Structures are given as structure tokens and as C-alpha cells.
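Sequence only, no structure available. Ideas?
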Amino acid sequence: MTEASIGPTTTPTDAEIDAAVSWETGEDERHVALTDDGWNLGLYRYHATGTPARPFPVVMGHGLCGSRYIFDCHPDYSLARHLAGRGYDVWLVDLRGRNQSWPEGGPDRALQWSFDDFVAFDLPAAVATACEISGASEAFWLGTEMSGLAFYASVMARTTAQLRGGITMGSPAVTPPEAQVPGVTIAFPQSDGARLPFSTVAGIGPRLAADRSDLLESSFRPANTDWVVTARYFRHGVTDEATDLVDQFRDWMVEGVMRTRDGSIVYSNRLGDVRLPVLALAGAADLQRPPDAVRTTFDALGSADKTFVRVGRADGFPVDAGHDDLIAGRSAPTHVFPIVADWLDAHSS
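Reply:
I predicted one. C-alpha cells follow.
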């Protein structure tokens, strides 16, 4: 059975779903970035396949309870492969606490992590390793949701010296309380004390995707997503998350600020310190990270070189993009990926 053999309106069988979700990301090399606090982060490199070869690599980070799979769940909807085809050396990172990204000894339920760890340790290690191996002096960061926020915070805190600029996708510093954020404003999943077990969607998620369930509107909008992409991501890409991290996000939403756990840095008050070039994208129908909140953050950035793109019908796009289909939806390869690549091209000389 090929992926194309299951039509967009056909309801697949359980056997067809199991066959369709069998998947592994298509990187050319695997590396490890060692953080200063002893975590080994998985780095997945996609060699540039297009010409001309671009001088600066692109390091790409995922969102809350996510992983690298968001960038490569299907060859037709892969931002990683698209950018490699445009001549970029692409590096996907799994931030700490998922897949192979653990200290020596592997997964341990006693371990916790927070957003502060991404800013202080993970971004610096991932960018430095990509630059060292590629021989580049600088790198771009592309971050969805949480990783986009980590880019802003890293620039403000000056933790990552080799950043050339950043692309953020659905990354508001302050997310309004009415937003539908799993584990934060939505009761699923419930904490077990150490983790929020988001990965339980690996069981039911692929069937919800195949059925084009309305329950997916806040993640991959069924009208704009090949169900195979959604099913694969739920089966392989969703990870459990530390309670410390989710509690930190909850604090931000309740208090209306973005800050370190100890409150010593209020990032949402310092967005003017972000002066690197920025491309900020927002989905017009993103229920998790609403576009107006993304725009408010964008307006506060201090960069003289910044671009905001709202992906919606009123903005000239064929669909109102949601949270995850902004990155991996049916219209993304033709209407979103080229915007990202063109911006990178313009900032690579």
C-alpha cells in the first residue's frame, strides 16, 4: 500500500493506519550536542541538496511535548527537506527530555527540566555543535511555539553567541488564558507527579487523524492536513513533558508574563532587547497560540529588521492555518515554506 492509495475522504482500516504511520525521519547524519549541565541532545542533520550551497546552517526546534518529527513526518510536507533542497544545511534538535536527549544513563523519572534549561543550555549547545561540525561562524534558529520563545529569551539573555537571526512560528510571549493549550488550559493530560503523559495520544491519535476528528482543530486542522502527517506525528512525535516545564507555562498564562522560574528575568518586559533579524509567522486559526498574541509580541521586538506573516484567507493564503498545520499542512509546502526559504536567502549574504 502506498500513501497515495488512501483517498482524502476514505476511512482507512486499522491495518492501513498501522502501515501508514510506520515512519522514521530522513536525516543524513546523527550527532550529539553536549550541554554544559551534562545532557546529550540528539541532533539530526540534513545535507544541502540544492544549489547554491548556503553559508549558514538552520537549527530547528520543536514545541511543547513535541519533537523533531514536526519538521519531517512526510516527504511532501517536510520543512527540513524543503530547506535542504534550497541549499541549507539543516539541523533538527530534540530538546532535553525526549527520544535520545538525556544525560548519561538515559531516561529517569526523577529528572525535571524547565524553559530556563532550554535557554541556558540547550540552544547554546545545539547551535554551537551545528556551527562546529559545519564550519560555519553563525547559524539561524527556526523555532515553533516554545522553541521560538526560547530564541527570543536566548537573545535577551545572551546565552547563544552564534545566532544570526531567527524564524518563529506561533510564538507569543504571553498566551491569553482562553487559548487551548493541552495540559495547561485543557485538562488532558493529567500530571502523574513527574510528567504529563502527552505520549498517550500514540494510541488513539492516529485513529482520530484518520477519522478527521474535530478534536484536532487546535493542533492539525483536518481540513488543511494530510491525515497521514497527523497520525505519524501522534504515533512518533508527541512526548511526555516535565511538570516543571508545564507549570512554568501555566504560570505565564495565569500571570500574563513570560519569565524565569525564579522571576529574576521577565522576558515579556524585555522584548525590545531582541535586535536580531526576525521572521514571525502566525496561523490565523491557531487556537493554541492565537495570531493577535503573536502580533503583540512581534510589535514589541526591538529589531529594525523584522517581518510578520499571518497565514490566513484574509491575508491572501488559501486556508486559515492552525497550530501545527502552519508547519506541516497541505498548503505549507507551496505557501509557507517558500516564505521561510526566501527570508533565509535574503539574510544569508
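Residues 1-7 have pLDDT under 50 and may be disordered.
Hope that gets you unstuck.
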